[in-house]
């Protein structure tokens, strides 16, 4: 048991604080002889990297990852892979303001109550900076999943303004600064966020992750369910307040008939579902259909508007955040969400293979 | 690692199939010298028990729990507590219909693809019958939490029809057959469900669990977050498709100002929050405020209307369910949700105590 | 984490006290579609069963195991297998004598200091009765290992009197009451133990377990080493005070040359070792050679001779044990040791397969 | 589950290869507000450091540890502590000789069979270099145990030549190059090892670790036993082939009377044992007496004498080791053994406190 480890057979342990000398992680359980270099990981980090657009924090971090172990002559060896990123832009600003104050929506108060001490610089361990290591681990997980699995994320809602699903275009996702699959929505969001930034305010968001091509059989009854572990994984991302699989909360409003994913047979023996309300998971186990998960990110708590708060000495104070911060942390959560889903799938792939080495890799039935 | 265990220091392992001789669980990690007898567990099982109203499955199970170990002369001994419930009403019906057919919305297909075998009788391991052991374990968890913690659940939405929060009355919850805190909603739901049952249809639901009085400091960065583990726990319940903490998905539509939970000091040194959008958790750690979690349950997949499906032999078939089933499985999920939250809190209480034995039991600050 | 669970992917959780209504275990992670009935488990329990010879405790327990879950129509389903044995001969004797007294060599004092309560009847949880469930789980582990693996144990030393290794005959092991591979030693031990029993004394023993045919590659650097887990597993058996792999403590007296296991090639490409000082494990990973582990069991602490002790009230007392007890608990430890080795191997087989599905099943090298 | 993690609540994950850029570890679960700097860890690393005497490997590594996270202003914060040591003396020697050859007694063959790849430089992951991180983690564990616990190790046997226990003097341990408590033995060993080194040979050793002042109650039935976890921990150290607790294998030769640790009461209410055959552990739980563990280390496998071996291509070869190596790896295993015992005790301290916060810190009984 470890509070800073994630996964079971594909196991990630992260460490590091926002303003410490470095952040890092150890990824254990990776099969041997996978081709892996920093160049396989860096692009994913670059996608998450701060300072790239006006809609995310302006902290400048090159986030150059280094592999310190577990890879030999370009191949994984089966031993733990240590990754490290040195913190560069640890702006030596005056933290006097938040040193003793507990900002609303932040982990300041709870860390203090739990530990009686906290590294307040940039949020310390509670900083979203930790998610860089999730993204790095996710890149390794993707290597394990192979090219059969297409794992993508998109922002589907900012501040209550949702994308038009009829206009969904995955190619668009890489074309705007919001990972938005709907160009019209992206345009609206741009205006919205500029306004929010100007007002020193912030907005929440909803992210959707879709994994296509994952084999059936991932997950297990009853506490190793794939959806249960996806929910835990996504909820562990900073600022996430809700997680859905497939139809999610909308399922509550459906009838049994409306929610049923009917099935037919393909000529080649594969099962075809006529819908995917289940989000690719039945009884906690993947069906072979696209796995669909969504999560809600609250608006950034660091805002310009003064808020009533308390300090370490039990005094009532007002706080407002001046520094560089994301007006919508949900944007940078897209690659993080992808990474978490990749890690969960990689872990379950190993677990499934251990117990069921002969299980089919597709939802295919014998025809006799 | 175990697919059928839950929790870390308070650790529950369940076993059993719907139509096997018995179901049971082992609860490990319970502190010694807690008063515990079957009478402390049975009332919670009785709340979940099938066959009690016309809105839930008519299977008749007395669900009498027996303690087989870990309790001596009415006190826990610190050794594992084994609980068992014998299955009684294993109706010897003809399972020919579902033996080889994969019902939409059920785990039939995924179990078959994963394991190449399944106990099809009543859903086997995927049956909601397993949740009886969660409820039993939850009763032990409640003992550990003590009387300071008030942990209650309510149904807040059936088929898209939500309760009026202004009319919320916890006392009502025990007065109707839906655990509904709003009598007007309960009346509407009764009509709705009678209609659904008559039509052989089913409805989804949303459940809300509230834990008041839990100490601050439960949970931990960054993968042992309280909200992450609550999400995993609740998503592991059969038919659950979404989980929220506090404001949940609604947070996506809020501004940073609107979502901030401002703080003031009580004269006695306690921190008072002016709102609870966070659902009692910041940075993955409890604040001392009420912990609020919600989860969505899909409509029962077993319905009268024929649905297109496939069978074990790769043939296209139609299935319809004739047996006894819940028109709204969400109703019986209320005590199960309570139990899962109780188990997560008990587990985190032990984990918190191990690392932080001197942490305060209330959100209280020194005033100096 | 659980104090009463063992293994990772093949995971055993045991429960029960010596004089409670039953003892049992849950075995999770077993692959599906293995043929398994009670008849596959019972013979191993019968080997461990008390009351079978004059050299072991006379408690009469039929130890009839029942499978309560995880098996359907004679095949495992991949879900947890619950086993239970009802306690029969809970002799309603007067426990007044040991109720408040802390017997030397027993867990009485430590349970009291740790938990402040203990089920003193027959030792409660610390009773060797718990090992019946290890044996039952071991029978399932053997099923997983298959017929390629020959896993056997023998008693090699009682009270300092060792077998003659030149006279080792596995067939002898089943012919005497001591699992002794050397008939001459068995005859000497018989006399020795009769004398010890008459004197109300007891003797220690050393057990050796040999697993032939296990594949190479089991185990992993650096804390999942096969030898490390065997050591933990064997040391967890009641009364065990030492564990060795291969040459064991004798290795300390050897030179590097003397301890080296040289290698040659077989014509078929298999590696042949010229000796097995390593006990089949190098760098924590199995070599494909026989895996050899030994463990030392202390003399039964329950003896007739009065010993100075203390009681619950801090009073100095004398205790002597009158009841039925093994003059040499090491004898019944043989099937238990076999079972623990089987469980460790089964667990590592799954773990190895998860990460290294393409690893060879024999120590065979490409010849090019 | 992780093959490279150790412990449960005090959890250590190590990474790194002998000739990679660095080695490191993450220590999770450390309580907050413990004073900790590199200066608290470095002295223990210096004790283990190579190149310090003519009896250990001449590799020159300053082994300067850096703390990268989890410590703020000199105090632990409760978040994971990352430690790193850069590898300096990665002698760019020609590894051609061992690149494809499987040296007897080394992990070369088993890594190859398991992973199909290995970092052969200096043994890669199987190098004793990894134990530096154990020592570093052990230093943190010692901080947690506090000054009440005196944890020391000594070499008690080299090449079959044991210390005279009557001459045991802990002060001597720091005065010679062997951690030997008996100056006469140290003198004999010096001659012995000079001879072995000259001959290109090597010798095995036995190490004893004693922890005084540890509270009673550490450990738990039945798989979380303190002795079981000590056995696993010590057996996981490179080259260890046997582990004993207290009387160890000698217990097999004792009678029940001879092995009994009788008890008397001290005037202050503490239990006094008249002997310590048990090594401070009964029923898997510490008694409050000194905890005594011993382990045997095989002679260094790297020797000058040519040995028959095989290579990657299935060819028979002869190998002899020319590089810098320890003639007795047991010497440097002393601080490693201490560290492992410290880690196990720290872990169990947390586990014990979680479940039994009110347990007494001394073996003291109420006198009424």
UniProtKB/TrEMBL annotation, chains A, B, C, D:
PANTHER family: CHORISMATE SYNTHASE (PTHR21085). Reduced FMN (FMNH(2)). NADP(+) binds at residues 48, 54. It catalyses: 5-O-(1-carboxyvinyl)-3-phosphoshikimate = chorismate + phosphate. It comes from the Bacteria. The gene is aroC. This reaction introduces a second double bond into the aromatic ring system. PROSITE patterns: CHORISMATE_SYNTHASE_1, CHORISMATE_SYNTHASE_2, CHORISMATE_SYNTHASE_3. Its cofactor is FMNH2. Its EC number is 4.2.3.5. The lineage of its organism: Bacteria, Pseudomonadati, Pseudomonadota, Alphaproteobacteria, Acetobacterales. The keyword Lyase applies. This is Chorismate synthase. It comes from Plastoroseomonas hellenica. It is an enzyme of class 4 (lyase). Homotetramer.
């Amino acid at each position: 048991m470890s509070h800073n480890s994630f996964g079971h057979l594909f196991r990630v342990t992260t460490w590091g604080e926002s303003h410490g000398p470095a952040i890092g992680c150890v990824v254990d359980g990776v099969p041997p002889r996978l081709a892996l270099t920093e160049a396989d990981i860096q692009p994913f980090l670059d996608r998450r990297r701060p300072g790239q657009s006006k809609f995310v924090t302006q902290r400048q971090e090159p986030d150059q990852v280094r592999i310190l172990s577990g890879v030999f002559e370009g191949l994984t060896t089966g031993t733990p892979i240590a990754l490290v990123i040195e913190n560069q832009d640890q702006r030596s600003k005056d933290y006097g303001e938040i040193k003793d104050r507990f900002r609303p929506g932040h982990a300041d108060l709870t860390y203090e109550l739990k530990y009686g001490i906290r590294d307040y610089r940039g949020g310390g361990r509670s900083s979203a900076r930790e998610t860089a290591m999730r993204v790095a681990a996710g890149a390794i997980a993707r290597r394990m999943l192979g090219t059969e699995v297409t794992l993508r994320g998109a922002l589907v809602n900012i501040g209550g303004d949702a994308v038009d699903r009829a206009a969904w275009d995955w190619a668009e996702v890489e074309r705007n600064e919001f990972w938005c699959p709907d160009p019209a929505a992206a345009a609206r969001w741009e205006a919205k966020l500029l306004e929010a930034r100007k007002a020193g305010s912030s907005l929440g968001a909803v992210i959707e992750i879709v994994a296509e091509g994952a084999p059936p059989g991932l997950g297990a009854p009853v506490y190793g369910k794939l959806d249960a572990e996806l929910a835990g994984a996504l909820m562990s991302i900073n600022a996430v307040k809700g997680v859905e699989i497939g139809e999610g909360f909308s399922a509550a409003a459906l009838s049994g008939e409306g929610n049923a994913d009917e099935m037919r047979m393909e000529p080649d023996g594969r099962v075809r579902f006529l819908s995917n309300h289940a989000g690719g998971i039945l009884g906690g186990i993947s069906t072979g259909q696209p796995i669909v998960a969504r999560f809600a990110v609250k608006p950034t708590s660091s805002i310009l508007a003064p808020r009533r708060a308390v300090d370490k000495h039990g005094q009532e104070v007002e706080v407002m955040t001046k520094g560089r911060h994301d007006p919508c942390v949900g944007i940078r959560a897209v690659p993080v969400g992808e990474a978490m889903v990749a890690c969960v799938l990689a872990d379950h792939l190993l677990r499934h293979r251990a117990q069921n080495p002969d299980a089919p890799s597709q939802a295919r039935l014998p025809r006799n």
